[in-house]
């Protein structure tokens, strides 16, 4: 008996000793934060029912490095160290990785990637809404190769649909929502021989889409030049003319459609005057070309709204449809900042998109709205060095290279920041890196920096968001969105799992009726 008591006491002493050994660990704030997160994940219940709306955010060119650097920039802008922060989508419960390559290119372009994540079909570089059987720039080859975007399928099913982009609305990503062409560059005109073969430019396809299908309810972005003839002066820049060679004024054509409760607008003043409760169709082109970078945006009445403001207005208009809605929001100029070798511009655009996502978070119900945040592809920007925490994200590291020079935290593999390889790498100072026009250094000097071919992250919350887990082809991205809206590409014009937004799926209704039937007779 005494021996048993002794053994028990020994185990108690060992337990106390072990508890003392781990006390420092379990009381550490990082450890307790991990426990809190574990509890949240254990208590989390995925939403396995259809919703009534989907919002897809595309950070054009938003690589994982871009997300990390933007998170740090946002924090440092707000007077913090930055590393510990979160962008507005980083708390979403589900994440995955999408493989971005085009069928014919290891490193993709935005037309091929948009066709993948909007239509569910991978295709070749430069193709918009058509399969790889179409040959780029060859009109006859595109016949019979059209694939349809989730926006088109949602519109056919009676949902309201919208697109917001800081790029031209005829640019690759927004174009895939409504257009089909074997050449992404045919934004405002096609060669004469191509026109005779039946191909139509993207801007004209948008007008036709509005005329033939009832159209996109909200279209906000840039790109007036492809809707105006070469003889027509721009409303904002009188010295600039349109780019259309066919003499058409597509802005007038849109107005003549006489869509119910419709407005065409081109500046912030008109944008602010739009009453979303009395608007069914809103067409806004706020720039001659792409919209301005956020750092250059004119915030006055004659300027242009932010991506967050456009997102808010779009949701206000679209959510009035009891059947639901689909909205795509593209931060197109993240990509352009990277192409120019300007990490500053790219990260400011990323944080502006985070503001837009925050708007969507606050305006939607996670039980009804699937929100997906992803990128079409990445860029060659890298983040390295052994600098201390809180070091300015655009600045120099604490390290020296083998020649005794400091180097940048953010660099590009290629781009305009390259230098003459016959000369030493230019010496930099932190003061130089504070200039908004400063370009990050690059290994290979190019006129424009390129995309990269790495996977991109997909973040999701809401109905069927749990399906975004693992690593998959980019063409999978659309599938959970279609599931959340009960859309079936084989049955356009129908919602296959519910009669109306918020309704009960037929299978679920049958199960419910049978359960009530059994319960009734058990209690009879």
UniProtKB/TrEMBL annotation:
Bilayer-spanning residue ranges: 501-521
Domain of life: Eukaryota
Gene3D superfamilies: Alkaline Phosphatase, subunit A (3.40.720.10)
Positions of Mg(2+) binding: 60, 171, 173, 330
CDD domains: ALP (cd16012)
Cofactor binding summary note: Binds 2 Zn(2+) ions.
Membrane topology listed for this record: Lipid-anchor; GPI-anchor
Pfam families for the chain: Alk_phosphatase
UniProt cofactor(s): Zn(2+); Mg(2+)
Cellular component, GO, one term: plasma membrane
Enzyme Commission designation: 3.1.3.1
Protein's cellular compartments: Cell membrane
Main location: membrane
GO function terms (MF aspect): alkaline phosphatase activity; metal ion binding
Active site location: 110 (phosphoserine intermediate)
Keywords (A to Z) from UniProt: Cell membrane, Glycoprotein, GPI-anchor, Hydrolase, Lipoprotein, Magnesium, Membrane, Metal-binding, Phosphoprotein, Signal, Transmembrane, Transmembrane helix, Zinc
SMART domains on file: alkPPc (SM00098)
Annotated catalysed reactions: a phosphate monoester + H2O = an alcohol + phosphate
UniProt: Zn(2+) binding residues: 60, 335, 339, 376-377, 451
Signal peptide span: 1-19
Family: Belongs to the alkaline phosphatase family.
Descriptive protein name: Alkaline phosphatase
């Amino acid at each position: 008996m005494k021996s048993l008591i002794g053994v028990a006491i020994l185990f108690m002493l060992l337990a106390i000793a072990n508890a003392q050994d781990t006390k420092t660990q379990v009381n550490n704030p990082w450890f307790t934060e991990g426990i809190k997160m574990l509890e949240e994940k254990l208590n989390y219940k995925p939403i396995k029912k259809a919703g009534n709306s989907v919002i897809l955010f595309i950070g054009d060119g938003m690589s994982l490095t871009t997300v990390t650097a933007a998170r740090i920039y946002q924090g440092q802008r707000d007077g913090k160290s930055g590393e510990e922060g979160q962008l507005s989508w980083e708390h979403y419960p589900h994440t995955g990785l999408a493989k971005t390559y085009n069928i014919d290119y290891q490193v993709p372009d935005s037309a091929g990637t948009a066709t993948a994540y909007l239509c569910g079909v991978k295709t070749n570089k430069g193709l918009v809404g058509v399969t790889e059987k179409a040959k780029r720039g060859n009109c006859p080859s595109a016949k019979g190769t059209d694939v349809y975007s989730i926006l088109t399928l949602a519109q056919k099913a009676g949902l309201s649909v919208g697109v917001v982009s800081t790029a031209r609305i005829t640019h690759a990503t927004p174009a895939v929502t409504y257009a089909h062409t074997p050449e992404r560059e045919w934004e405002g005109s096609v060669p004469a021989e191509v026109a005779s073969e039946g191909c139509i430019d993207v801007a004209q396809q948008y007008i036709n889409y509005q005329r033939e299908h009832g159209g996109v309810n909200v279209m906000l972005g840039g790109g007036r030049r492809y809707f105006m003839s070469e003889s027509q002066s721009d409303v904002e820049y009188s010295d600039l003319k349109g780019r259309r060679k066919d003499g058409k004024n597509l802005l007038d054509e849109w107005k003549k459609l006489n869509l119910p409760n419709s407005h065409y607008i081109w500046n912030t003043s008109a944008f602010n005057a739009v009453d979303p409760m009395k608007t069914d169709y809103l067409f806004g082109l706020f720039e001659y070309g792409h919209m301005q970078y956020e750092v250059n945006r004119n915030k006055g009445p004659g300027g242009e709204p932010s991506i967050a403001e456009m997102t808010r207005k779009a949701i206000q208009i679209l959510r009035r449809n009891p059947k639901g809605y689909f909205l795509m929001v593209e931060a197109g100029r993240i990509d352009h900042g990277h192409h120019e070798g300007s990490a500053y511009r790219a990260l400011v655009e990323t944080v502006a998109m985070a503001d837009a996502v925050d708007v969507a978070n606050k305006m939607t119900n996670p039980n009804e709205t699937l929100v997906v945040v992803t990128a079409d592809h990445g860029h060659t920007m890298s983040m390295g060095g052994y600098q201390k925490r809180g070091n300015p994200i655009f600045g120099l590291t604490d390290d020296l290279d083998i020649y005794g020079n400091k180097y940048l935290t953010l660099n590009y593999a290629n781009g305009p920041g390259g230098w003459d390889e016959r000369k030493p790498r230019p010496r930099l100072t932190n003061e130089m890196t504070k200039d908004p026009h400063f370009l990050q250094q690059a290994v290979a000097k190019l006129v424009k920096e390129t995309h990269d071919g790495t996977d991109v992250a997909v973040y999701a919350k809401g109905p069927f968001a749990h399906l975004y887990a693992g690593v998959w082809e980019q063409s999978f991205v659309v599938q959970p969105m279609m599931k959340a809206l009960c859309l079936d590409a084989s049955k356009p014009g129908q919602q296959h799992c519910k009669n109306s937004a918020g309704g009960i799926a037929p299978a679920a209704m049958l199960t419910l009726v049978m359960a009530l039937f059994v319960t009734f007779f058990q209690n009879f």
